[in-house]
Amino acid sequence: MGQLFIRNVDDDIIEAYKSRARAAGLSFEQYMRDFLRQHLPTPSAERLQFTRGIRDSTENPVEPLTKEELREGIE
């Protein structure tokens, strides 16, 4: 497993996360490992599949606006 070193982090940010770790009953290191794991960006293919699933589950999907409707809304 690798290590991660981050320099020049404001002391108040570090203290805030240490406080959250204590409140969760975790060590600072464990709290930050969990935080990083939970905040991984979702791959674009996964996001696309998710949004298509929402669209497909909608009973009455909204039709896209025409160019004329878009122009009318801008004016």
Shape: elongated
The whole-angstrom Rg is 22 Å
Return the structural class: mainly alpha
Number of strands: 0
Unreliable parts: none
Largest sheet: none
Mean pLDDT: 89
What's the number of helices? 4
Description:
By secondary structure, the protein is mainly α. It is elongated, with a radius of gyration of 22 Å. Helix content is 63%, strand content 0%. The chain has helices at 11-24, 28-38, 44-57, 67-74. The chain is built from 4 helices and no strands. The protein has one domain (1-56). It starts with 10 loop residues before the first helix and ends with a helix.
Which key features would you list for this structure?
4 helices, elongated, single chain, 75 residues, mainly alpha, 63% helix
What does this entry show, briefly?
The chain is mainly α and 75 residues long.
What is this structure's SSE topology?
Layout: H1 11-24, H2 28-38, H3 44-57, H4 67-74
Helix pairs in contact: 1-2
